Amino acid sequence: MGIRIAEIAKITGAVIEGNADIEISLPGKLEEADNQTLCFFANPKYEAQLYASKAAAVIVPFDFKPAQPVTFALIRHANPYFAFCMVLNAWFNPNEPKKGIETGSYVHHSANLGSDVFIGATAYVDEYADIGHNTQIYPQVFVGKGVTIGKNCTLFPGVKIYAGCKIGDNCILHAGTVIGSDGFGFAPIGDTYAKIPQIGNVVIEDNVEIGSNCSIDRATMGSTIIRQGTKLDNLIQVAHNAEIGANTVIASQTGVSGSTKIGANCQIGGQVGFVGHISIADRTGIGAQSGVTKTIEENGSSWIGSPASPTKEQFRSWAAFKKLPDMLNEMKQLAKELEKLKDQKDNS
Hints:
Largest sheet: 12 strands, mixed
Strand content: 25-35%
Shape: flat
Helix content: 10-25%
Number of helices: 5
Radius of gyration: 28 Å
CATH architecture of the largest domain: 3 Solenoid
Oligomer: single chain
Number of strands: 40
CATH topology of the largest domain: UDP N-Acetylglucosamine Acyltransferase, domain 1
CATH class of the largest domain: Mainly Beta
Number of domains: 3
Distance between the termini: 98 Å
């Protein structure tokens, strides 16, 4: 189903230059667009693609001034990418909300379901679970005993929420993610290990999105906490009693060890590893494949490498490392010259 440019402006608060009655049938990339496609332009390095595009309309910044004539309508907005996302969510979202309880699902009689909840076939909702209004529970989701899930949440197929865990409002959990599995707690007994009961839970606050196949372990005691607004990529492990601060973003394959506390508004690259029992200051940036082995106390600092160190310091080290072969040759040459001088002295 299409959307007129005038409706896009109404949704986003944008200003139109061109024909407001043009109908858009799909979103797309500048280089792949046709005369029914909506695109966005926010990065100057793609300006050449903009002028070559056959799009019907492009969302651009308010202050954008075309250097060449354009054939498409301009939709001016303060944040083109955000406006584009608003349109995608309103008109092109493939996951349209459903309502009702499908045949083949199980909902315990003591569970509490809000209005307009969807429970897909083969989903299982255990006793005393509480699910908020408009929440979507897709097939093969398990919601354990006493779990609380807020309103407007989406749990995609195969999500597992163990007993006692709490999910806030407006959260999205993608397929295969497990919330509340046992933390990795074992006590050495001679040459073997005794399992330490993990009696805590996981608390996920509002507006959190967690990618597919992530594991968030329940606390040994207390809670493992994912603060509001945090976004986790796919394949991330958060161990027991860890805490991720508000509005932090973490890329794929990162592992956070037990009891580590990551601050708010941090940006963490893929395949980063954190040792346990450390703290990371707010607004810290950590580059991909870094190994973080100690507490980071300075807010807003940037770290990279393994073991991780401040980015500028690490770059200087790498620059010096590249010079090591030449430095080694110079040292060998100096050693030879010293040997010659020694021989001359001994023979004089």
